[in-house]
């Protein structure tokens, strides 16, 4: 999680050819989640693309399927800031579920659930510092908008005040695009520089 490390300002300055198919890492604090467009969307059961209403039914704008009902799917528009600037990253579906630990459907259909109001359990990821692995969000048609999609993120164990949490040396959670949460074992050591400002994980 140190490969192609950039600050957010550097990410925003990259040219399109530098962005395609390349994953960058970036460390920053998740300061807010923008729910202007909701915290979940109706996704195609198959490709997880957004579905469009078509009369009483739906069809997938991406693969054209309409034989099964759409499923609620996380799309967290998170605001991340570092010492350079702040920007938006998108955390989709299973990846969001891995850190929230509750399937979208369960929260989306809960009583009093509001698509534009964050459930408390989602708010718990706000205020923490993470290392994000991001790439350009290819689902976005307007690539100039520089929308970054998170493919992996790692809690650095810092709380909102920049202090280390207890037990952070024993367990670090890495959230990837898999069905399971990967818990890094004790063979990983947390290292930070003398200023205490930079952390990386290193396998021993
Ligand atoms: Zn589809």
Automatic annotation (TrEMBL):
Signal peptide coordinates: none
Keywords: DNA-binding, Metal-binding, Zinc, Zinc-finger
SUPFAM superfamilies found in the cross-reference section: Nucleic acid-binding proteins
CDD domains according to UniProt: RPA1_DBD_C (cd04476)
Family label: Belongs to the replication factor A protein 1 family.
Protein name stated in the entry: Uncharacterized protein LOC109716703
Organism name: Ananas comosus
GO terms of molecular function: DNA binding; zinc ion binding
Origin superkingdom: Eukaryota
A UniProt-annotated Pfam family: Rep_fac-A_C
Gene: LOC109716703
Record keyword RNA-binding present: no
Domain Replication factor A C-terminal: 25-142
């Amino acid at each position: 999680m140190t490969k192609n490390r950039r600050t957010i300002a550097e990410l925003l300055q990259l040219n399109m050819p530098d962005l395609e198919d390349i994953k960058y890492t970036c460390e920053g604090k998740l300061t807010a989640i923008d729910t202007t467009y909701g915290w979940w969307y109706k996704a195609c059961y198959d490709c997880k693309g957004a579905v469009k209403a078509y009369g009483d039914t739906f069809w997938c704008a991406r693969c054209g399927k309409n034989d099964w009902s759409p499923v609620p799917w996380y799309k967290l528009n998170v605001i991340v800031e570092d010492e350079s600037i702040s920007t938006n990253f998108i955390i989709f579906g299973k990846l969001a579920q891995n850190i929230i630990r509750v399937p979208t459907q369960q929260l989306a259909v809960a009583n009093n659930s509001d698509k534009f109001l964050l459930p408390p359990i989602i708010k718990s990821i706000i205020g923490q510092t993470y290392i994000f692995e991001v790439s350009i969000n290819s689902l976005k048609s307007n690539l100039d908008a520089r929308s970054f999609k998170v493919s992996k993120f790692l809690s650095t164990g810092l709380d909102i005040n920049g202090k280390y949490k207890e037990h952070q040396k024993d367990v670090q959670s890495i959230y990837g695009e898999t069905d399971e949460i990967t818990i890094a074992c004790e063979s990983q050591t947390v290292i930070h520089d003398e200023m205490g400002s930079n952390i990386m994980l290193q396998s021993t």
